[in-house]
Amino acid sequence: MTELDYDHLLRPNLEHVFNERDSGKRKAAIADLYVEEPVMYEPTAIVRGRNEIARIAGELLERFGPTFTFVPDGIAVGHHDIGCLHWHAGPKDGPVAVTGMDVAEIVEGRISRLWVMLNPSS
């Protein structure tokens, strides 16, 4: 059995979905990276479907301003169709506002379920 390249899925998810300000490009990336009916688990909500994930990502970027960026920390790792990627986020040249990781269940090479895990503030 060939193991998945988790970095090939989770890094583009961070860069082309959650950092993408153009809604058309964001939706195209989601269509490439996610199954037809994905589910995203945030700390305060459960988001169902590609369109809702695109909407939430866009709203997040709008809320935090034009230079807010998610930056991967290292490479994504995983096994048995579960992968994770650590990241930090904040203004491009500013202090880190939040850290966390994305944990994804992969089905047939695409993200099926995504858990957004936030680290506690210090």
UniProtKB/TrEMBL annotation:
Keywords: Plasmid. InterPro entries: NTF2-like_dom_sf, SnoaL-like. The keyword Mitochondrion does not apply. Gene3D superfamilies: 3.10.450.50. The keyword Signal does not apply. Residues 18-113 form the SnoaL-like domain. This is Nuclear transport factor 2 family protein. It comes from Bradyrhizobium barranii.
